[in-house]
Amino acid sequence: MANKERLVVIGGVAAGMSAASSARRVKPEMEALVIEKDYFISYGACSLPYYISNDVKDFNDLISLTPKVAEGERGIVVLVRHEALEIDTAKKEVMIRNLEKNEESIVAYDKLVIATGGLPVKPPLPGIDLENVFTIRTLLDGIAIKKYIDDWNTFEVCVGAPECLYVNRYGAGRRPMKGVIVGGGYIGMEMCESLRKRGLEVTVIEKMDRVLGTMDLDITRIVEEKIQAEGVKLYKETSVQGFEGSQGKVTKVLTDKGEFEADLVLLAIGARPNAELAKRSGIGLGVAGAIQVDEYQRTNIPDVYAAGDCAEAIHLVTGKKAYIALGTTANKQGRIAGENAAGLNRRFEGIVGTAVTKVFDLEVARTGLSSIDAGREGYKFFTSTITGRSRSSAYPSGKPITVSYLVEEETGRLLGAQMVGREGVAHRIDTLATCLYGKMTVEDVARLDLGYAPPFATVWDPILVAANVAVKKLLR
């Protein structure tokens, strides 16, 4: 009897497990072997701030699939605590190491999917390896941060105030009171709320002139006002130069504008593709150092695919390759890679960079390009911003929603949209993402037949109001 065709997947979180599962659905007789360096597979990394805040009590609730279930119900063999060391694309072999036994072995493949994900940006600053300087990328990262906070707050025996000593399993010490977040992006903003809920003083240090990356100032000003109203100290246009500590633990963050005391530091500077293994194997890299793939998730090497936060994607607004690390993209690319590895010919059309986040009681969302993005791409554009309401003014509990459109001057094409408000934002942005997918103009958007009832919207939904205002600007 001939050997079965084997798919090997490197990486077992979003893209990797999606690839293995979809391949087995398409071709049940195909072997699927997943190599995962960590202890866990298939978990919701986007929920980590809510685990740290105690909104999610048990990290097991973040895990959607275990190795045992993957093998028993899906026929996928998962080797956790195994690291892929080298890929020999000529021999179609992967050298792996059992991290528990420190033993190396060779695994042969017929098809290979690389889903090694992303890595947190961690610049080589003095003191960056001090204890309690955390990143938040994996489930283990989230567990470590929560454990550090819990160890003092769970076993507390206060012997003084306000700088009280607590006794925990490790002895006496000052409980973590001051948290410094380096970076004001999505994760940084979400972690503001998480750490405040856990009773920490929070300081955010951001290198740019705004939070939330390249989002426009009409939106970011509202977010900045909110976090400061919640007691968060914000320092913009400030560069971190290093960290100082005592007895191996961080105590200060050093910047070009002074020093900040810290019991806990969170590096939330962004993510970069984990593509070094692919690069060493002769697999081509593209934008931002991500693995270069075509619309079928194929790399430049036959029978080798890549998906998720290690791979690039087509941006449907610009038509160019982009690197935007999002969980939704990882799952979709993983599915396409697995299906094609199993013999199909499916395309991943691309992305428009839709993202939504919760900052205290604000919903903040974007899709497509911002003004900074469009400027970099050379577009001639204008912005149009309005503030509407989430529900009819006659219906109680409606909230303001600020909507900002980015419009191409000559064509009126919608290039991007951003929103912020206390309700009704998260799903409205999906409508505008669909408009971007269809390359619609603001006149097209203004003609949309949207649902209306007083508990859900106004007669003229904020989406339509914003489009009409943009049309007037376009016609001037």
TrEMBL record:
Cofactors demanded by this protein: FAD
Keyword Transmembrane helix found: no
Source taxonomy: Bacteria, Pseudomonadati, Thermodesulfobacteriota, Syntrophorhabdia, Syntrophorhabdales
Keywords carried by this UniProt record: FAD, Flavoprotein, Oxidoreductase, Redox-active center
GO molecular function: oxidoreductase activity
Family membership: Belongs to the class-III pyridine nucleotide-disulfide oxidoreductase family.
Gene3D superfamilies reported in the protein's UniProt record: FAD/NAD(P)-binding domain
Positions of the FAD/NAD(P)-binding domain: 6-333
UniProt protein name: FAD-dependent oxidoreductase
Keyword Endoplasmic reticulum: no
Ranges where the Pyridine nucleotide-disulphide oxidoreductase dimerisation domain occurs: 356-458
Family annotation (Pfam families): Pyr_redox_2 (PF07992), Pyr_redox_dim (PF02852)
